[in-house]
Specification:
By secondary structure, the chain is an alpha+beta fold. It has three helices and three strands. The termini are far apart.
């Protein structure tokens, strides 16, 4: 039996093994970059250039100069790249473009392709 000046044993007030100290746990997880998708606008004979520029400014947050450059690529080459995004963001932007185009009466097509 321990005397008054001797410790009775190690103190463990938490009741947790190792006195509640954090133990190092190593977990090996493979971390992969998210898949990225290019969002494209396609030319048609009905959608106005002004509408395409407004889509690029409002949905894709392009400057008016950038939007005009992309719109001209769509007009001259048949397709123009709006940006590169993760899958969820790209799908959302395509849906926003289609919804707004339909609401305004335009057949504007917007697609995505994996980078």
């Amino acid at each position: 039996m321990a005397g008054p000046s001797e410790p009775a044993g190690p103190s463990n007030p938490s009741g947790v093994p190792d006195g509640g100290r954090d133990t190092e746990i190593l977990i090996e997880d493979e971390v992969r970059e998210p898949r990225m998708f290019r969002v494209l606008l396609h030319n048609d004979d009905y959608t106005t250039m002004e509408f395409v520029v407004s889509i690029l400014v409002e949905v894709f947050r392009r400057t008016p100069d950038e939007a005009t450059r992309i719109m001209l690529a769509v007009h001259e080459k048949g397709v123009g790249e709006c940006g590169v995004y993760t899958a969820e963001v790209a799908e959302t932007k395509v849906a926003l473009v289609h919804a707004r185009a339909r609401r305004e009466g335009y057949p504007l097509r917007c697609t995505l392709e994996e980078v």
